[in-house]
């Protein structure tokens, strides 16, 4: 059975660094990689510009970020999928990992110090609630 690594992204430069690291892990382990971005609200905004009325949604944004990140880390030897999952970032990662029987979740260390440590972070929540291995990549 092929292993699966799940990485959480949010469109930031630090999340991109984590995705690059997780791609290296997955490739070294012979695992597949799923790039996941959680989105909390199912809202859409329509902007009226002349006759055009483009719609923007949290889901579509999450899908685009996950897709772009997956494309950036894809290689010949690494199968990469991308997913937008409804829920808070930590819940989305845990839910996706459990649904796909992932062996590891990779998250960044952002907000793991200072006031972020007191208020909580995605990495902290995932580390305490995931049923699989969790790797916290140093991003500062």
Q: List unreliable stretches of 5+ residues.
A: 51-56, 112-119
CATH class membership: Alpha Beta
Which percent band covers the strand fraction?
Answer: 25-35%
Instruction: Name the CATH architecture.
Output: 3-Layer(aba) Sandwich
Average per-residue pLDDT, rounded, comes to 84
Query: How many E strands?
Result: 7
Order of helices and strands: EHEEEHEHEHHE
How is the biggest beta sheet arranged?
5 strands, parallel
Q: How many distinct folded domains? A: 1
**What is the fold-level CATH name, i.e. the topology?**
Rossmann fold
Helix share, percent: 40-55%
Largest sheet: spatial strand order: 5-2-1-6-7
| C-alpha geometry | globular
Q: Distance between the terminal alpha carbons, to the nearest Å? A: 35 Å
> What is the number of helices?
5
Spell out the CATH superfamily.
Answer: HUPs
Topology, element by element:
Elements: E1 4-8, H1 13-29, E2 32-39, E3 44-46, E4 55-57, H2 58-73, E5 80-86, H3 89-99, E6 104-108, H4 114-119, H5 122-129, E7 133-137
Parallel strand pairs: 1-2, 1-6, 2-5, 6-7
Antiparallel strand pairs: 3-4
Helix pairs in contact: 1-2, 3-5
How would you describe this protein?
There is one protein chain. With 140 residues, this protein is α/β, with parallel strands linked by helices. The protein has one domain: HUPs (Rossmann fold). Helix content is 41%, strand content 26%. The chain has a five-stranded parallel β-sheet, sandwiched between helices. Strands 3-4 form a two-stranded antiparallel sheet. Helix 1 links the parallel strand 1 and strand 2. The N and C termini lie far apart (35 Å). About 10% of the residues have low confidence. This is UspA domain-containing protein.
